Amino acid sequence: MRDVAITGIGSTSFGRHDGRGLESLAVEAANAALRNAGVARKEIGAVYLGNFIAGPLSGQEVLAGIVADELGLENIPCTKVEGACASGGIAFRHAVLSVAAGLCDAALVVGVEKMTHASGGQVTQALNCAMDNRSDGPSGLTFPGLFGLAWRIHAAKYGTTRDEVSAVVIKNKANGLKNPLAQLGANLTLDIIRQSQPIADPIQLYDCCPVSDGAAAVVVVAKDRAKGAPDLPIDVLASVQTRGSPRIGGHQDIVSFDATVQAAQRAYQAARMNPNDIDFVELHDCFSMAEIIDSEDLGLVPRGMGAKWAAEGRTLVGGDIPINPSGGLLAKGHPVGATGVGQLYEAVLQLRGGHANQVKDAAVGMTHNLGGAGIACTVSILKRSDA
Amino acid sequence: MATNPGMVSVLKCSACGTLDAGPREICPSCHEAALRRHEVAGEGKLLTWTIIRRPPAAFRAEGSYAVAVVELDAGVKVTGRLEGPDDVKGLGARVRLASSKDGVATFCAA
Question: Is residue B1 part of a domain?
Fold first, then answer.
């Protein structure tokens, strides 16, 4: 397999894009990524597009081909991939694979979602497509509910408190304030969070990511083709995808997701690294409790300490292991199919040294994208090509 | 097919005896297409619970409701509803089946 690098990134802002369609958002992000990579259209040999719910919410499929057509790409294979909230990360992995395998020298990855035009009930219903609806769905469970269930177990096992969990929210919302692409940065206090509306006990409003529109894109190329790119190429040291149980009953308990644990182990192995080598992570904080669980599953924080490390400031931009300097899904937003690609966009900005919340001397970054009730996961490790 | 009072309908593999909450097509253990309906006592312990205050569109008419994960004494984990969550003593508390509707079990304090 050949080494692969990212040479181009592009993104819309995440948030409300009233009156714009999926295609418009995807083309904006993808065109920016192609230009940033300095790659000719005819050199792109494959497109992988991550999207989750364009069917139910917008009545539009075949997005990969539509976007490639608008971009003026050749008649190349264009594939839409779906893995719930991990759709974008999976699209990236497939593009990396096709370049690594030598099937093409350059591939375009796009992630896109349009959600804010639908009602809250429609969005919740559409997101529930990510459950195994033969088992957990009929109970009326929702995704905030899943992390409410997880919270009670985490609290019972590790003594995690409301205010410790709030430290995750306060951090990510504050990081989001400085990120120009973020939807919902804010200066929050423990009191404001404590008094916010209950959603799925103990999950409250500020524990939840917003409903978002947005698109992000990256261009991946064979590393020997990356020289001469206008901007600093970023090496892809690992891009791993795993499966976990689709059902709550299939997990040992729900304060750890096997798919994340195994993806992290395989990624560290592929990159010949360990958690201490990671300078920052963009991980899947769809809910505050999700960040806590993810940080432990990735081996970046000791088991049970996810909330306590946040409360001690150890996951701040200047902390031991900066988590979600972009603001994460909680503040930057979660246009589902775009999220995994958006994380890669943020990680590349960090590694190029030009992020609004720059982690000092960042040379190695990790991204983590988790779908459904832990059914699909991707973990990638990226490194500055000059480090 | 109606379930007997107090019993929860699960699946049992007639080839290897594995129990599973289902629904499923083939046995998760031996992979034989030999899963049959099987009733187990609706008693067990509460693993965790939440109150859904923002239901999906299909459940909107119900207002808020409690969802629980229960480990039945037979060793099967079931996602269902919880009645009177305030009466339940906390995680690990004993619960029993209160009622069952459309294949979804509702539990209450034992």
Answer: no
Cα of A373 to nearest chain B Cα, Å? 13
pTM value > 0.95: yes
Q: Cβ(B8)–Cβ(B105) under 8 Å?
A: yes
Residue A129 catalytic? no
Catalytic one of A85, A208, A209, A377: A85
Query: What single-letter DSSP state applies at residue B96?
Result: E
Among A120, A128, A149, the residue with its CB nearest the CB of B50 is A149
The minimum CA-CA distance between A4 and chain B, rounded to whole Å, is 38
- Note the pLDDT tens digit of each residue in A317-335: 999 999 999 999 999 999 9
Closest of A363, A351, A377, A319 to residue A175, by C-alpha? A319
Complex ipTM value: 0.96
Instruction: Please give the average per-residue pLDDT across A165-171, as a whole number.
Output: 98
B63-81 pLDDT tens trace: 999 999 999 999 999 999 9
Q: In the predicted model, is pLDDT for residue B53 greater than 60?
A: yes
DSSP state of A183: S
pLDDT in tens, A205-218: 999 999 999 999 99
Size (chain B), residues? 110
A130-210+237-384: CATH, from 3.40.50.1950, 3.30.70.360, 2.60.40.10, 3.40.47.10: 3.40.47.10
Using the Cβ of A252 and the Cβ atoms of chain B, whether some distance falls under 8 Å is answered with no
Closest Cβ–Cβ partner in A125, A150, A151 for B58? A125
Report the largest interatomic distance among the alpha carbons of chain A, rounded to a whole angstrom: 57
Q: How far is A146 from chain B (nearest CA, A)?
A: 8
The second-level CATH assignment, the architecture, of A4-119+211-235 is 3-Layer(aba) Sandwich (3.40)
Contact: A141, B67; criterion CB under 8 Å: yes
Cα A289 from Cα A142, distance rounded (Å)? 15
- Annotated domain spans of chain A: 4-119+211-235, 130-210+237-384
